[in-house]
Design brief:
Elements lengths: L1 E2 L8 E4 L3 E2 L33 E4 L1 E7 L2 E4 L10 E2 L1 E7 L8 E6 L5 E6 L3 E4 L1 H4 L15 E4 L8 E4 L8 E5 L5 E3 L15 E7 L8 E6 L6 H4 L7 E2 L1 E5 L5 E3 L11 E2 L1 E7 L8 E6 L5 E3 L37
Antiparallel strand pairs: 1-2, 2-5, 3-4, 4-7, 5-6, 8-9, 9-10, 10-11, 12-13, 13-14, 14-15, 16-17, 17-19, 18-21, 19-20, 22-23, 23-24
Length: 329
């Protein structure tokens, strides 16, 4: 992932690593990638759950300019944390002007790397309340994103997991801690039997509140044979932000694409036809990508802006709006 961690105006590179596959082996039903293994076939070969592999450290490469990068993982503290990373998002959780990192890990605790002045990263996932589930259990973190979904001026977090683990929407408390609102916000029940990969906060109807799209699909291609209620192909989910703390599942009324199941693995959002409404492309495992055009008819106004940092961070990643009268001359 590209982001400017030290605000020098050059994009640096963060590379998430997953697991050490040097001991790769085939797993039987006892290690099947499933919440439960009802009716597992004896001696059947399944994908190994990441729990059986050793974790790996991620790496941070500083952009020195001129096409040259330096591995600064050790000096910045990134190398101190070994995880099983699947997804990462750069966001400023404490509004100090430096981009932090939220890394979703599979079967071990998630990481929250807080950027201390562009020099060091402090991993605070446990004390921030985003490392484990509410029951203190590591989950299978995969898809991840960040946005101010409740409009309080602070960046919140979202992480998707596998079936029976529930997904989490973390409210930013403003003191480098978070509270999981997955039940009160309406996320927990619709995602209980799903496995989430690509996801994105975005405002699909231009009403000023951040909505949410989830692309799902179980990692175990034989899960249908030995698990009741869980399938390999799963539906897309679209949640509408009602502006009052609830994410309402509107998938049933969002078009034909939301009535089908997919082995989805990734998702990207952007305005493909420049009509002011964000569209999306979904990556499908073993199949062609799914391109969805947004036909919203809210008639809400929109404006397109190209933000450019004049002193650092030329792409203006993490920019926040100022109130009238606060803008510099």
């Amino acid at each position: 992932m590209w982001f400017d961690y030290n605000n020098d105006g050059r994009l640096d590179l963060f590379v998430v690593q997953f697991v050490d596959y040097s001991s790769l082996r085939n797993c039987g039903s006892d290690n099947a990638y499933a919440g439960t293994t009802q009716g597992a076939v004896e001696n059947q070969r399944y994908y190994c759950i990441p729990r059986v592999f050793d974790p790996m450290p991620s790496h941070l490469y500083r952009n020195d300019g001129g096409g040259h990068f330096t591995d600064v993982s050790r000096e910045t503290g990134i190398l101190d944390s070994r995880g099983k990373g699947f997804g990462v998002v750069a966001t400023d959780i404490n509004n100090d002007g430096f981009m932090d990192l939220f890394q979703a890990n599979d079967t071990v605790a998630n990481f929250l790397f807080v950027n201390r002045g562009g020099k060091k990263f402090e991993e605070v996932g446990l004390q921030a309340g985003v490392g484990y589930s509410e029951e203190g259990v590591p989950r299978s973190g995969m898809g991840v994103d960040s946005a101010d979904f409740d409009g309080d001026g602070r960046q919140d977090l979202f992480v998707a997991n596998v079936d029976h683990e529930t997904f989490s929407i973390y409210h930013n408390n403003g003191d480098e801690t978070f509270t999981d609102l997955n039940r009160t916000a309406g996320i927990a029940e619709p995602t209980r039997l799903l496995s989430g990969w690509g996801l994105r906060f975005f405002d699909y109807d231009n009403d000023g509140s951040m909505d949410l799209i989830l692309a799902n699909g179980h990692p175990e291609d034989q899960i249908d044979q030995h698990n009741i209620g869980v399938t390999y192909r799963e539906p897309l989910l679209l949640f509408h932000n009602d502006g009052k703390g609830k994410m309402v599942n509107v998938s049933a009324s969002s078009g034909e694409a939301f009535q089908q199941n997919y082995a989805a693995r990734g998702l990207a959002v952007g305005d493909l036809n420049n009509d002011g409404y964000p569209d999306m492309v979904v990556g499908i495992n073993g199949g062609p990508p799914l391109v969805l055009y947004n036909n919203a008819e809210s008639r809400n106004n929109w404006v397109g802006l190209k933000l450019t940092g004049v002193q650092a961070n030329r792409d203006a990643v993490g920019a926040i709006p100022r109130k009238v009268g606060q803008c510099p001359e």
